[in-house]
Design a protein that fits this description.
Layout (H helix, E strand, L loop, with lengths): L5 E10 L2 E11 L4 E5 L6 H8 L7 E6 L2 E2 L4 H5 L2 E4 L11 H12 L5 H11 L12 H13 L5 E5 L7 H16 L3 E5 L3 H7 L2 E6 L2 E7 H6 L2 E8 L2 H11 L5 E7 L2 E7 L3 H7 L4 E5 L4 H10 L8
Parallel strand pairs: 3-8, 3-9, 6-7, 7-8
Antiparallel strand pairs: 1-2, 1-4, 4-5, 9-10, 11-13, 11-14, 12-13
Helix pairs in contact: 4-5
């Protein structure tokens, strides 16, 4: 049986009468990227703090790399890379000087070659004082600090915040390489397309409780798929609309001239089969599928936050 890199059992944290995390059972395996989603106050940050030994659980248990997350935190930290959503390095030091300082604190051999490689790939300037860098460029230094030692487990909180699209793509490639090497990644994010792109499984927190934890493809299979279809003429559109209204998987279908908008719950096989019998000029999907799944649990996009 594969040994989990992160394992929690009934993990609970209370602050007085407030239960921030309630009996959480969660795991991250080798070579797995787990997307960790939830709005403000869902319990994600508190969970991460307990996993890193920064907060003591009220009850339950958590192990990281086979070590108790609280009493054996220093042992686990040798092979953990952490990027917090808000991190602080010395503003007057250059990025390189900050990295050297972190290496000395860890009491590990410097990983200069790997750091330079990551800096080149992320287009990070390590020679300027941090106070002169934009938030996105500071984020790059944080990513290098978290990953230069090739950790067995990476805990990344909002890693692509402030990064431009090309750098985001390179970062995703780095995460893919971590997964291929057998490392695990716990990725906390409110950027749903990012999670959909790289996560093997998705865990959704709400009010301290885990409300869903499934493979990304399984969750997407439960999504409400939205389509906009432009047909050759109004007659084709009307025929398609009438046929779709008889399908149990179609929850909404609206016709506006030659344009038809529809929503399909689950498999789209029957709708695709009907489409194949009509003259279709254009087909587009206007919304992110994973977002549809997420909103089933939260109801409003305004709640999708860190």
């Amino acid at each position: 049986m594969t040994t989990l890199l992160v394992h929690t059992h009934a993990l609970t944290k209370r602050f007085g009468t407030l239960t921030a995390v309630d009996e959480l059972d969660l795991g991250v395996g080798p070579g797995e990227v787990l997307g960790f989603l939830g709005p403000n106050g869902a319990g994600k940050t508190t969970t991460i703090r307990m996993l890193l030994g920064l907060a003591r659980p009220t009850s339950g248990a958590a192990t990281v790399l086979g070590c108790d997350a609280w009493s054996q935190a220093p042992q686990a930290h040798r092979d953990v890379g952490f990027l917090p959503a808000e991190f602080a390095l010395h503003p007057k030091l250059t990025g390189w000087a900050n990295l050297e300082h972190l290496w000395r604190l860890r009491e590990t051999a410097p990983y200069r070659a790997r750091a330079r490689e990551l800096a080149q790939r992320l287009e990070a300037d390590l020679n300027r004082p941090l106070r002169t860098l934009s938030s996105g460029n500071k984020r790059k230094i944080g990513i290098i600090a978290a990953l230069a030692h090739s950790p067995r487990l990476a805990v990344l909180d909002e890693p692509i915040s402030g990064l431009d699209p090309l750098v985001q793509k390179e970062f995703h490639g780095i995460v893919d390489e971590l997964r291929a090497s057998g490392s695990g990644v716990l990725l906390s994010s409110h950027t749903l397309p990012e999670v959909e792109r790289i996560a093997d499984r998705v865990a959704i927190m709400r009010a301290g409780r885990l409300v869903a934890c499934e493979r990304t493809d399984v969750l997407l299979g439960k999504a409400v798929h939205r389509f906009e279809v432009t047909f050759a003429d109004d007659v084709e559109a009307a025929s398609f609309t009438e046929r779709c209204r008889g399908l149990t998987t179609v929850s909404l279908v609206e016709q506006d001239g030659a344009l038809v908008r529809l929503a399909v719950e689950g498999a789209v096989t029957d709708v695709v089969a009907i489409l194949g019998t009509h003259r279709v000029l254009a087909l587009r999907t206007p919304e992110t599928e994973l977002e549809e799944v997420f909103l089933r649990y939260y109801g409003s996009v305004t709640e999708v936050a860190r």
